[in-house]
Amino acid sequence: MSTQILAPLPGVAMALSDVPDPVFSAEMVGSGVAIEPPDTDEPITVVAPISGSIVKLHPHAAVIVSDDGLGVLLHVGIDTVGKPDLFEVKAVEGERIEVGEPLVIFSPNAVRRLGLSAAVPVVVMDTAPGSAQDAVTGAVAVGDKLFAI
Q1: 103-130 pLDDT, tens digit each
Q2: What is the DSSP string of 43-103?
Q3: Is residue 58 annotated as a catalytic residue, yes or no?
Q4: Based on the number of CB atoms within 10 Å of its own CB, is 98 exposed (0-12), middle (13-18) or buried (19 or more)?
Q5: Distance from the CA of 51 to the CA of which of 7, 26, 104, 146 falls in 20 to 30 A?
């Protein structure tokens, strides 16, 4: 049985190998897809790509564990650790979240103005490199299927 991971924000889906961070691009954390958000100053809401429990929630990242134990990491932007003013957290660590419910709001261009990548890796933790199945690339809308695991 496979689990579908849905797009948590609009943008352009790309292979993790295209992310400007060696930990994500080499799939050291796990397999998945990244999304490059649109060129906008408007706030974008990042939503849960699966239903489950929020086991970790930082302004720049979240880990959701599904009912069957799959851990999905979303990292909003690259090198955005320690920049909480870029994000508005909309969920609570330790609570249950349903697919499509808001996690974090951010402006992609506010991240880019700091010279950082606004790419959002969506990774299933502790999976072997290349294990994301049917991974999409190109334009995605919130809730589109990104990949299966």
Answers
A1: 999 999 999 999 999 999 999 999 999 9
A2: -EEEE-SS-EEEEEEETTEEEEE-TTS-EEEEE-SSS-TT-GGGEEE-S-TTSEE-TT-EE
A3: no
A4: exposed
A5: 26
Evaluate whether 16 touches 27 at the Cβ level (below 8 Å). Answer: yes
Pick the catalytic residue from 47, 75, 91, 108. 75
> What are 136's two structure tokens?
């999409």
How far CA 133 is from CA of 46, 130, 136, in Å, comes to: 22, 8, 9
Whole-number pLDDT of residue 79: 96
Convert the pLDDT of each residue in 14-28 to its tens digit: 999 999 999 999 999
Closest of 102, 119, 128 to residue 46, by C-alpha:
102
